[in-house]
Amino acid sequence: MSNSNPSTLQSYIDSATGAIQSAVGSITGNTADQAHGDARQTQAQHENAASHQTNKLGPISATPSGGVSVDNPNRSEGSWNQTVGSAKETVGNVFGAEGLKREGREQNARGQGQEAQGMLSDLGEGVSGRVKGTVGSAVAGLTGDREEQAKYNMQRDNAKAQQRSAEAGIQKQADA
After folding, report:
1. pTM across the whole model
2. Is pLDDT of 27 > 70?
């Protein structure tokens, strides 16, 4: 298990290993193996949760591994357009101004699309950057170039922040 840089993939491997160890301990009657397997599964759940953690301040996201990302501008602009559109729609409702109400609904809808476009862009760039960073780091590790490996690790960590921020935004929209 890698506690210094939580990994979703590693958490899945550790969880499966823990489940197998617990099952073997249960079948053989070895309570120590069963308890160790259960503990490994619990640790894997914590690592999985940590690998998805993202702290956000405005359009900036950061992960515990040190990755930092700035949201695609369409995300905040889209959110702003939704807010302004909703306000126009409300004012239009209050004063019976059908044109303003319609304009507000349209601006709100455009803002939703704009924000979604920004989230999808961040998600795609995040996934792509993580793959490039992981592959680059592995190649640099094989060639012994530690400086290049560190550069690719930072690229992967920044892309992870970008991806996790987009995932959190998408989940927030789905929950709304």
Report:
1. 0.76
2. yes
